[in-house]
Amino acid sequence: MTMNPTRSVPGDSTERHESDHAGPELAERIRQERSYVGLSQADVAEVLGIPRAAVSALETGKRRVTGLELGRLAELFGTSVDRLLGRDVPADDTTAALFRATKSLTDADKEQVLRFAEFLRGAGQAPEVGRAQDVTG
């Protein structure tokens, strides 16, 4: 029988669960995402089935986030688990907003948005607005 070196005896102080996540960066991203979608800690607590104080502890890094909670948070916030974990952060806020805005659209509507984005990409730079053209006669 071979021993798995990444596992330890239950109850041992070195026991590690890959489904548990912690850290100040994750805590801050959870707080930011909750704030972005306009939810209160009580709203998040209700969805997760935990006390509001536990959500506060998640957002301050005093409580670890389980894998199940992480998945529920991502769904609630309209984002991905990878984004919450800091693995898949869009280059800018506009990209994140576009992702959220299109996530709940129907497939047909997503195709329309994609066609429009392709149209804009092919249209080139927009002309400068507010610049008076000198027209002399």
Fold topology:
Blueprint: H1 24-36, H2 41-48, H3 52-60, H4 67-77, H5 81-84, H6 93-103, H7 107-123
Which properties best describe this structure?
434 Repressor (Amino-terminal Domain); elongated; 0% strand; mainly alpha; 137 residues; 7 helices; disordered N terminus
> Could you name the CATH topology of the domain at 24-84?
434 Repressor (Amino-terminal Domain)
Give the integer mean of the pLDDT values.
78
Number of helices: 7
Shape: elongated
Looking at how many chains there are and whether they match, the oligomeric state comes to: single chain
Helix-strand sequence? HHHHHHH
Q: Report the β-strand fraction as a percent range.
A: under 5%
Low-confidence segments: 1-20
Major sheet characteristics: none
What's the count of strands?
Answer: 0
- First CA to last CA: what distance? 94 Å
The computed structural class is mainly alpha
Instruction: Indicate the CATH class of the domain at 24-84.
Output: Mainly Alpha
CATH homologous superfamily assignment of the domain at 24-84:
lambda repressor-like DNA-binding domains
What is the CA-based Rg, rounded? 22 Å
CATH architecture label name of the domain at 24-84:
Orthogonal Bundle
In which range does the helix fraction lie? 40-55%
Concise overview:
Among the domains are: 24-84, Orthogonal Bundle (434 Repressor (Amino-terminal Domain)), CATH 1.10.260.40; 93-123, no CATH class. It is built from seven helices and no strands.
